Amino acid sequence: MSFLLSTLRRRLSLKRLQRRGGPRPKSGNGFRRFWSWTALIVGGLYFFLPLIGTLEFSLRMRRGEYSLDAYRSVLEDPRFQQTLGYSVIMALATIVVGILIVVPTAYWVRLRLPRWRPVIEFITLLPLVIPAIVVVFGYIRLFNTSSFLPMTGTTMGTNILLMFGYVMLALPYTYRAVDTGLSTIDVRSLTEAAQSLGASWVTIIGRLILPNVFGAVMSGAFLSFAIVIGEFTMASLLNRPAFGPYMQILGANRAYEPAALAVIAFAITWACMGLLSLVTRITRVGRAGK
Amino acid sequence: MSQKFGWNWLGVVPFLAFALLFLMLPTMNIVIGAFRTPGGGFTLANVQGLFSPRIMSSFILSIQISAASALLGCLIGFAIAAAMVHGGLPKWLRGPITTFSGVASNFAGVPLAFAFIATLGRVGLVTMLLRDWFGINIYAMGFNLLSFWGLTLTYLFFQIPLMVLIITPALDGLKKEWREAAEVLGASGWQYWRMVALPVLFPSLLGTFALLFANSFGAIATAYALTGSTLSIVPIMLYAQIRGDVLQDPHLGYAMAFGMIVVTGAANLVYIILRTRAERWMR
To answer: What is the complex's ipTM, to 2 decimals?
Structure first.
């Protein structure tokens, strides 16, 4: 399974790619450079035109001049505030529960159950294989009102179910991030030192392991946030008032507001990824300084 | 330590319980449902129902869109990554390209559909510019964003960056000595790529293709926000089925979900096998 994992790791720590420069090309190959620039410019056009197009479109709401009316309309919409608030809370809950599930597990597997690693890693990769829509279909059937665990029967139950669904969606990224973080510290020695000083398991994980893999945990957290904030399928099928379904409904009924929403969503994604690479850089610099 | 040995597995019980309850049991439930009659007996009729023209055509359309977006994503992403790593571009470009790829590969779902409607929709920026500046009316020429090619073009926005992120390390893994050896032996740049680099990279390329394929096959939010239900790809049909039982047979819905797992599972299996072969060259 290591290939899938290494792919994930690459998606998680972008900086790694940037540092490790490839073999330097020989200079003077004008032909090759011409095609390189062509590929880059064509690619650049493809990626920037939609962004510029969206930005331009979002400013067009007032006839004949550019204005921020679409943004005002979106920001003043109480449902925008409610759904975004709901999704932010969901994202934060997902991050906290994800950490509570992933950190002790990854730690324990490294410390005591190295033989179980392939099994655990395989499970963490399953969400990449099973489409989210299939899993949520299973939720609706398995946790309906007449089942052994009727979570969809109450609002709170459905919220919790959705939150666990998000933890599941983010699992490949969070587990990978934390496990990579753990590989950089000596788990065994730290644990034995703490134990000989009389620390309990909760103290060891909460005050020793967690701070040591903080950067990795934060990387996973930002990626989880980016995944959860605009998620559509699960929230929509579980009928929760999240940001993703709100955007979809607005898109079906309005013209300019969706473009403004897309700009806002892109900014949120950009912020998450920016913070992710910032955290990666800071933790790496910190470690190099020791 | 040794006396504790038998109880170590207790430490992963919370994780296993979570995975069982929120990942495996729900999936198993659907898979079993696909092989059940409404009365609870075993049947293959639901899976056979997948071969009805309506469902079959949605699977074929989905597979075509996923294959097209994965293939183009691979080709274009490879070109960009190769230009970045081996193409003699300034070194400082590498950072921005990789960071942007990270953002763009995560910018999917509903907002991505909005971005393309604002750009290539009937009154989108590019549509208008082409019409006003160059006199090209792409909609009169038969282009439609809410179509096979429109959806493929939109999916490329996250497929290409994903390819760049995955293939860059493989391109970095091409050893300088191989190129030098090829040049010493008189190979042209094209011969080096055709006879050395591409055969080495081939498993990675094919494997990434499989990953991109699965990636777009399971995607629903972008397609739904873009086309509503005009384009009946599998995830959209399944979505409609879950919401309102449009097939009028709940068990057919389970069979469709099962079919999706089979397709993405097969794509990932190809990825895993080829990746294992590719890793031999990466050392």
So the answer is: 0.84
